[in-house]
Every structure is written in structure tokens, then in C-alpha cells.
Amino acid sequence: MNFIFKNLRWKGLANWMLNIAQVLLIYMIWLVAGKAASFFHLPISGGVSGLLILVVLLLTRIVRPAFIEKGAELLLANMMLYFVPLVVSVIQYTALFESAGFKLMIAIGVGFTVVMLVTAMTVEWFFQWTRKRLLQSHIAVRKQRMTAPRFDEPT
Fold this sequence. Notes:
There is one protein chain. By secondary structure, the protein is mainly α. The protein folds into two domains: about 1-75, no CATH class; about 85-155. The protein is about 85% helix and about 0% strand. The radius of gyration is 24 Å and the shape is elongated.
């Protein structure tokens, strides 16, 4: 019985190590993209260029979704931790929010809406594209099966 609990403990540790490795892979892509964006003086941030690099790596199947799935789930599950500095900065710059608060809220609201819409449209496009490729491969396999000679039929 003790052997089973030991294996379960090692399995949990292995899952955490896998999660950490996947988060590190995502972080390395972001870091390299940020360095490249600053080196080449690109007008986009490292996060956006990192996302584009990750999409290209996923589309070319250099990186499989399973390689980053658990790490991405971990990052998304703890997303609220990333917004704590935003709240702290709002408290720190109360004078700025008192003088231009409405303009800032409009800018933040529009930016948030644009980011959410672009993200949703990108995800929807990617899933439609994936479904279309899967359907095309199923159709090709079916056509191949239909044109292949059958050896079980009498001639």
C-alpha cells in the first residue's frame, strides 16, 4: 500500500515539473521575442511578437499544443495574480486618476474590448482552420479508400 502512495507522490511531482517546464518554454519564447523586438526596433511589444512566434510554431507543428497545454492552463488559472500590480499602481497614482480618470477608464475599456475581440476572433479563426484541415484530411482518406482496389470482392 505504501508503494502506491509513493508512486502517486512521484506522479504529482512529475506533473508539477512538467507544468514548470511548459511555463518556462512559454517564458523563453516571450523572452526571445522581447529581445528580438528591441534589437530590431519593432513597433510591437515582446508579448505580441512572442504570441505571433508561438502561433507560427504551433501552425508549423514545431511545437505541439500538448507541449504547452498544462503550462498555459496554469498561467490562465492564476491570471488574477498578474493584475495585482495594476491595482497597486491605481492606488499609487490617485492624483492622476482624479484629474484624468474618465479618459483613462475609457482608454482602458476600449483597449480591453479590442484585446478581447481580437483574441476571440483569432481563437475562432484558428479552430475553424484546424477543423477545415481535419475535414480535408478525412475527405482525402475516404477518397483514397474508395479508389483503392478491394481484394475481398470476387472478380
